[in-house]
Amino acid sequence: MLDVCWRQVIRFAPALLVLLAACGPKPKMQPQDRHSFATPLEVRTKHLDLDLEVLFEQKILRGTATHTVVRTDEDAPLVLDTRDLTITKVETAESADKPFTPAKFEVAPKDPILGAALKIPLPSGATLVRVHYATSPAASGLQWLEPAQTSGKQKPFLYTQSQAIHARSWIPLQDSPGVRITYRARIRTPKDLIAVMSARSDFRLANPKEPPHGDYSFRLPQAIPSYLIALAVGEIEFRYLSSRSGVWAEPGVVERAAKELADTERMIQAAEKLFGPYAWYRYDILILPPSFPFGGMENPLMTFATPTILAGDKSLVSLIAHELAHSWSGNLVTNASWSDFWLNEGFTTYFERRILEEVYGPKRARMEAVLGRQSLVEELKTLPQKDQILHIDLSGRDPDEGATNVPYEKGALFLTALEGAVGRERFDAFLNAYFRRFSFESITTSQFRNFLNKNMPPTQVPVEEWLTMPGLPASAPKPVSDTFQGEPSLQWNTHQWLHFLRSFPPGIGAAKMAQLDRLYHFTRSTNYEILFEWLRMAVVNRYAAAYPKLEESLVAVGRRKYLKPIYEELAKTAEGMAMAKRIYEAARPGYHPITAATIDAILRK
Ligand code: BES
Ligand code: ZN
Fold first, then answer.
1. Which atom of ligand 1 lies closest to the CA of 352?
2. Residue 306 alpha carbon, nearest atom of ligand 1
């Protein structure tokens, strides 16, 4: 290739400049993402301006998204991802001081997984593209809560969940993690509600106690992938945790949240010591109503979290360590496609435990690692081989299906294996170099592999086997914890109880369950990790005494990780299926569209 170029340079000297441009370094760009219709190699958004009204009555967002584009191919249209959006008008302008003029646009037929491409031919010179639109009440990335679904029961609540490909259901944009943008937003809300976003806000800066006013401005000067754009609107209050961190939650929850999350600043300091300065200015946490479909979501500057982590004894704050760790792995260095998801979650699971080790000591970190490997080994028994691969092929599938224990726990074990091979000191130097090299970039598994080969001495770790083969290599680390030995006692912590429960074989029977319940009161546990582990066992063993609690919990909590195994277990028998369908009918209206889609698929069988 180079050879050909030079020969051409010599033969066609007058065309030197043109050729230099062709042979020289190309702008850093990722290949086409199979989960997006966007064509960023031709036209790419670099900045997004949102102006949205939040209409609770109609359950829609309405307004404009204005894209500032970089045009590599002057003849190419701008292609945006959309799902269930109503596009009313598109306009373009040459620059901010020039007028916007109406433009043609075309919405392609809808693909069931990807949504519909919005194609906008661009007049020459146009660099700004404004799309006027409204969302659908059934948008997959939005949950509109009735007052009854909140803790306060007085005001409605709205929140977004954009990962993996749901941003397109509330913003027309290039919905690929390989495309990074800065953004600004103006959000109009009812006057008595507060809006927060994954961005800086003047409101929050000036005085968190300032009364709401229905008109909020946000800006994020760092370039992020679209799946990190987030918004929440509701009756929420702020509590100070440290000069750069705090917690937002409904008034009835916020005190409890502030107590539970009191170690947040220590976690930030531990993370900075390990991986370098925190790049995002503030770190706040928003506690959502219980229908939130995930444990946590690493929206920059504003982690979104389930209230089920508020156990009262800080035993479930590893989730905060995890979402905080994403401020480096994921938000600074991002997976370029959903096949590279393990780069986000494997690194983060590894870092999560390093943070826990710094703040709570090695015993705590080791317990979490043992439990993590245990869930991985269990899940590997049920996963098809192709889904056991770190660098997974997700073509033709919803990327949410890739979120198994494999990217998380197999990814973390791989990094633990590398750490074991070169020693912690050298591994930490490698990780710091990785973050410096790829900060604010979206990278592929191949880029990681190349960086590893260049920056780490050869080891016995079978890197290719880890990245491209199913199962676990024979040499995979086996974390151990002596804390898990011994008899049950009232002094036991959450992790010990979880390990205890998981050590029972599946069919212990209802009588044994009743005996355990008499001794340790699991049905009354207020710790959701323990409770849901127990409720799953109750279904397997037909332990009917726990059914009222089961029903109550399935209606009250929308966290998909808890619900999925229980509905799956129920669906295995005819009577279980009948019970599942009855409960689901009452519970479904309260579930997030993402959770509802998962449970629909289980109960349809
Ligand atoms: N980024 C994920 C959540 C996610 C993954 C949303 C894929 C949509 C698609 C987040 O960081 C996460 O991993 N959350 C976990 C908790 C964590 C402690 C393992 C969860 O929600 O259970
Ligand atoms: Zn994560």
1. 18
2. 21
